[in-house]
Amino acid sequence: MPLSPALLALVVAIACLASPRHAMAHGAAPGVIGIAARKGAELRMLRLTEGLAVRTAAGGWSYVCAPSWGAPPAPLATSATGEATWLAAKGGMVQVAADGSVARVVSPELDAANVRALVAVGGQAFAVRQDPAKDAAGKTGTSLWRLSAQGAVQVWSSDDAWLAAAADTDGAAVLLASTVGGVVRLARVPIAKPTEAQVATLAVVQVAGPAVDLTGLVASLHVTGGKRYVNLFDVTRHMVGRVDGDPWAGGSGATWTKIASDYPLLYGPVDVGGLVVVSSTMLRRITATGLQTIDDNRWYTCLDEADGRSHVCARTQLFELGANGSVGSVRFALADLKPPSLARLDAATRNTCWIEWETFALQAGFDPGVPADGLPAPKVADDGGCVATGRRASGCAWLGLLGMSFCFMWLSRLRARVQGQFGACP
Known about the structure:
five-stranded mixed sheet, 15% helix, 30 strands, 4 helices, single chain, alpha+beta
C-alpha cells in the first residue's frame, strides 16, 4: 500500500531530525572540561566535551578526536609524568602520547564501564575499579590497579565500594573515600607498600541547620592546601566537607564537617589563599557565613589544581586562578585548536574523526580548516539528503522541519474536518 503524502513527510522529518549527524549537534556544547596532563607550569593536554587538546612542539594546540580511541567521547584521564595521558576507554585502557598518537594497552580487566577514577601518585598512574558483585545482594567491591605500558596490575582490593580517589597530602599514597551505609570513611593505600593500607571512619560534625544525612550520597575527593576535603552529593544537593584531625592516628577522632553546600553541583575546592569553588556556574569563595560570589560574568564549568597551580574553565576558555580567586590570563581557548592529524588513522576512522572535528569546530564558531598532515578532508556523502557534512547538516534539518510543518498542516485540516462533522472537541 503506497504511503500517504502526510505519512511520507512524517517519515522524512523523523529520519532527518533524528539522524546521528543531527543528534551530534545537540550534544554537550563544545568546551574545555579539565586538565588531563601538565608538566610543571606547562599545560600539556586538556579534556574537552569531545576529544582532547594536545600541546604541540611549536607551542600551539592540536585536536585529538574521540574516534581515535573509540568511546566515550570525554573519558576519565590522568597523567603520571605530564608526557603521556591515560584514558579509561571502552574495551580497555588507552595511552595518548605527547604528540597525540593513541595506543591501546592490553588491560582486559579495566574498561570505561568499571573504572571509577584515575589518579596519579608519585610518578605512577592508578585506576580504581568497581569489581563485579560477589553475592546475591549485589554488593560490589573495589580494586586498585597500577598502570604501565605493559598492562595493569592489581595492587589492592576491598570488599567495600570506594567511590573517589586522589593523591594524599604527602604524595605517597592513594586516598579513597566511601559513604557506604551513610558513614564517611577514608582509605589510604601507600604506593610503595599497598598491603599496608589503612581505613578510618570519620565522625560527622553536625553544624547549624538541618542535620546532615549521608544516606544515598556519593563522594568526590580533593586535597588542597595540605588538607583533605570529601564532597558528598546526590540529586538534590552538593556538600563540601573538611576533614579535620589525622585519620590514621589511633583514637584521634578525625571528623568531617560541612563547610559549604549548593544545588545542584560544586567543583572544588582549591586553596588559593582562601577556599574557592565553582558553584551554579559562578566562581565563589567559601566563607564562615556561606558562599560569596567572586565572578558571575562567565559560565564556569570546572576547577583544577595540581602542583600548587590552579585553573578554572569557563566553557570555551581556561584561565589561571590567582590569589583569593582572582581570574588571571587565558591559558587556552577553543579557537586556538588546529585540525587533527589523520595520517595515523585507518580510512573509516578518518571519516568519523573528521566529522567529529568539523561539527565541533562549527558549533564552537570557527573554521575547521584542513587536516593537519596535509591529507585531503574525507569526503562524506553530500547529495542533499540526511547524510551530510557539518556544512550541509542544516539542509537536512530544514528538510525535516518542512516535513513536520506539512504534517501539522495535515493534522490541522483533519481536526477541522472532524469538528465540522461532530462539533468542537472538548
